[in-house]
Give the backbone structure.
Amino acid sequence: MKRTKINDIFAPELIGQKVLVKGWVRTRRGNKNVQFVALNDGSTVRNIQIVFDLGKFSEDDLKAVTTGSSLAVEGTLVESMGKGQTCEIQAESFELYGTADPATYPLQKKGHTMEFLREKAHLRPRTATFGAILRIRSSLAFAIHKFFNEKGFFYLHTPLITGSDCEGAGAMFQVTTLPLNNIPKTETGEIDYSKDFFGKPAALTVSGQLEGELGATALGAIYTFGPTFRAERSFTPRHLSEFWMIEPEMAFYDINDNMDLAEEFVKFCIQYVLDHCRDDIEFLAEHFDKELIPRLEFVLHNDFVRLTYTEGIDILKASGNKFEVPVEWGIDLQSEHERFLVEKHFKKPVILTDYPKDIKAFYMKQNDDGKTVRAMDVLFPTIGEIIGGSEREADYNKLLARIEELHIPMKDMWWYLDTRRFGTVPHSGFGLGFERLMLFVTGMANIRDVIPFPRTPNNADF
Ligand code: ATP
Ligand code: MN
């Protein structure tokens, strides 16, 4: 007999049919006449109730059917009397695949804290909460590919190992095969990287953007979607050492086109998840965050407010609010400032533009005022920065001057400058942190809980 996934079992036409389901036991309860098992196979947040008639099965048969054990059950699908259930399976036979000793199974009880589950990261996908999160994560990734594919963007695979240390977005993890207990040295006592695997220092990428620009200035519009690594010791609930980033890069887009795309993109993703992951979103809303669905709908139905950094600073100053980092033109905005603008002042997502050039990367297009660049950051309620982007400096001489001003080594930059030397075009792009978007759509509070296996300082096991 063919197995039916639990996600497909709630179809009215299956009532009265014989079915075979396989999964893991969430709970077993009952009395001396009948036992009820809630079975889940990961295909949906919903469990199917299996009814074991103790006239047909003995207590002894069911002894090893405990929380966490795995089963195949054959039986008849019938309409259910129990409230909240549409149907259940009257068991006729079952096979126990594997037991889960109640004395040692870590997820024996319900209602664990997220902190506890982080310690059991190898098993937490089996919980209802993480099942919901991981299914949403999968759908959201699919939505991202769908959005760009339908817009005619090409998916570009940029390298994870890079030989240029000037991506500028954060501290890097070095990649080396040199023996750390016996590092080869040159005559002058420096590390002899000519003996290293790539013949020079190499590191894990902090952003695919620079290579993305090579793609955009050839294919017209590309996006990357891959792992990104930052060796920063930040212990915030919004930073991971390994995270996934989506970086579209578009020829012939100015900053306004860029903002339009960013807004359309995040709205598409949110709508997709509401349409395709309704059960999971409702589960998370019910258990963690009653405001989740209204908040998602609010973002969908409102235009993002667009204003300049300078206007933003003026609002923060005039607010009279006391911030941990005092507000002054030129500061790098902290999450507290971003969230004030979004949650208290505008009560809408905000796109801030035209930041001081000193706090932004060298490749951003310089404005005529000599002080600001054509950057755009999208700021979201509860998250703060979710997207960082800009129109790129397309003028060879201006870009070169900025590179020299910042003492970025030319030996690393010649290939990037060639995009401006040959057939340069106005172009723009942005980076969206996949897990930041996941935080928003799931309502989770900690970024460690929206990625299957989080990597953070001192944590690379499970
Ligand atoms: P932040 O100020 O929040 O550290 P950033 O300015 O370093 O962000 P960018 O370099 O612009 O961010 O990266 C683009 C996007 O990648 C950010 O808008 C954010 O969504 C995401 N991002 C950046 N750093 C991390 C991280 N350590 N973990 C998860 N996502 C991140
Ligand atoms: Mn950062």
Observations:
- The chain has a mean pLDDT of 95.
